[in-house]
Structures are given as structure tokens and as C-alpha cells.
Automatic annotation (TrEMBL):
The lineage of its organism: Bacteria, Pseudomonadati, Bacteroidota, Flavobacteriia, Flavobacteriales. Residues 1-22 form the signal peptide. This is Lipocalin-like domain-containing protein. Keywords: Signal.
């Protein structure tokens, strides 16, 4: 009987362990430390710093390592005056053969928006009075999210972001 007790203990422990594992393979990882937010950077001018056109902002509170930042530039409005957002990075091809590029990078503490071109951008509409929308969303571990990140409205819907009153920076 004494030899059977350790085997029963292992069997009961194994049964309890397996009963706690979800067998739903379609269950996605949910990042509970981030609440998706929208941030506006309104009507700003890029600054030329050491030959690089940029807009830098620092977060009041660092974001989590598991967060990602998506950047969109306002490129126009619809007939009912709703903004049209285009995901960055963007390359705009001009009719004269020149190009303007917009890009960004971010860390837990800040983000920087960049502009560059095949011509001098100083004093042009490409670096003055620009509006951007920044979305901070939880990164999805292990599985591809079923959202088109290039489509602003899809991202807002997927992450249930209230973008009616974004924070300004």
C-alpha cells in the first residue's frame, strides 16, 4: 500500500494540472496592462535638428514594454469633415518627381516623427502645420491580430478605442 500512495499522488496532481489548461486553441493572449489610447499631435511644425526634420514628444508615464505605437498622419477630410488618416511610414510622390517621406520611432519613454525629402523641405507645407494621431495598443503575443493596421478605422474598432476625445501632446 505504501508503494501505491506516491503513484496516486502523482496521478491526482497530473489530473488537476491538466484540468486547468485551456484546450481552446483559438483563445488569444490578452494584454491586461494596457488600455488603448489615442493621442493627437495637432497643427505642429517639424524642427530641423542636425539636418533631420523631427517632432519629438515624451510620455508623461512610460508605456509598457508590451505596448506598440501606431502613427497616422491626417491627409485630408471627407465630405462630412471627418479626418482621413494614413498610416506612417508614408512616401508621398509629387508631380514634379520629388518625394516626401514620413516615418517614426518610439521607446517606452517617447516617440519621434520624422520628415525627409528629395528636396529642401524648409518652409513648405510638408513640415508645417501637420496633424498626427498616435494610437498606443497592446502588442499581441504569439498570434497575428485580425486587424489591418494600415486602416485607422479597423484598428480603432478592433481595440475598442474611444477616439472622440484624444489626449493632446
Amino acid at each position: 500500500m505504501k508503494k501505491i500512495i506516491p503513484f496516486l499522488f502523482v496521478a491526482v496532481f497530473g489530473l488537476i494540472s491538466f484540468s486547468c489548461v485551456s484546450d481552446d486553441d483559438n483563445q488569444e493572449y490578452i494584454d491586461y496592462d494596457t488600455y488603448p489610447v489615442a493621442i493627437d499631435v495637432n497643427n505642429v511644425n517639424f524642427e530641423e535638428i542636425n539636418g533631420v526634420w523631427q517632432i519629438a514628444r515624451t510620455f508623461n508615464t512610460p508605456i509598457y514594454d508590451t505596448d506598440m505605437l501606431l502613427a497616422y498622419m491626417r491627409v485630408g477630410t471627407t465630405n462630412n469633415n471627418s479626418p482621413i488618416w494614413q498610416q506612417i511610414p508614408i512616401t508621398q510622390y509629387l508631380s514634379d518627381g520629388n518625394e516626401v517621406d514620413y516615418n517614426f520611432d518610439f521607446s517606452r519613454y517617447d516617440f519621434v516623427l520624422y520628415a525627409g525629402g528629395t528636396f529642401d523641405l524648409f518652409g513648405t507645407e510638408f513640415v508645417n502645420n501637420k496633424t498626427f494621431r498616435i494610437l498606443i495598443v497592446p502588442a499581441d503575443y504569439g498570434k497575428n491580430a485580425t486587424v489591418d493596421y494600415s486602416n485607422y478605422d479597423s484598428v480603432v474598432e478592433f481595440y475598442n478605442i474611444d477616439d472622440s476625445n484624444p489626449t493632446s501632446m
